[in-house]
Amino acid sequence: MLNQITSTATFQAIKTNPKTRSYWVVGIALVFATIAPIGMRAAQQLGMPFQAVVFWRLFPAFLILTPFVLRRYRGQIANIRRRDLMFILAAGILLGVHFNFLAASLVYSTILVSQVITNTGPIWVAILEITVFKEKLGRWVIMGIFIAFAGGIVIALAPSLETSTTIETTVRPDTLPDPNPLLGGVLALGAAIGGAVYLLIGRKVRSRVSLLPYIWMVYGIASVSAVIVSGISQKPLIGYSLEAWLWCLAVAVFVTLLGHGSFNYALGYLPATIVSISSQIVSVLAAIVAFFFLKETPLGLEMLGSSIIMGGVILSIIGQRKPNEVE
User: Fold this and answer.
1) Is residue 99 included in any domain, yes or no?
2) pLDDT per position as a tens digit, 79-119
């Protein structure tokens, strides 16, 4: 009886308190986001090249949003300034770059390394703010940047420092389509930088354009860029198994739409620091799922380097929220 009363009280608190509800939404978003690398890897293992994976991750989300956006935001879209349209075009192209580099990195590196390096976006946002916008950053941000780079060096050196026997027994050939940890890390770095620039552009446009029409246009442009990349690399977008396509559809619905949408909802009620730090958990969750379901075990130094990188990123995120410490 007491447990029933407690459960009812907990449910009522979640239902009536937006902040409490937002913590649950973030938790659900983390579960959804974990699907992304797993689904993309599964589709690749079923014979779908990363170029097609990117397209089928983006295009279904664009189609699902189309009727809602055209019904509610047609007038706003027609009145978007030409300058903002150029920003949106650039954002869509950069989102396509982000996803193509991310999907390509999964061909060569473990899910843990790919996700950890890709999620260094806050580090690159901070670096761009220093170099492009001439902003001054606090000591904790700068310290976090150096720590993250140190972790990256550990990951880069991991294959050469550990024996070939260890590599063969930990990074299994049936898991990675074409094992090349260094190349995978470099591609993930490209995904991180592309995502960082995409976010900076989005900050400029989102103050004038509503969320749904913005992401609808960005997803559409990124889908077109995926078609172009597929054509240049001569990788067809169709002709793959239904199972591979369903994995991509799951990523499109649960990650591209629901996962990102949940994080955006939570930002309305929770500090950006909490949401940003919680997104780092995705790397760990995805690695755990990959270990149990894909039999994928990263190298010991890759796990160490990944832990160092996440620590540096979290430190930088916290430092960005402490303006009084800027020197």
Assistant:
1) yes
2) 999 999 999 999 999 999 999 999 999 998 888 888 888 88
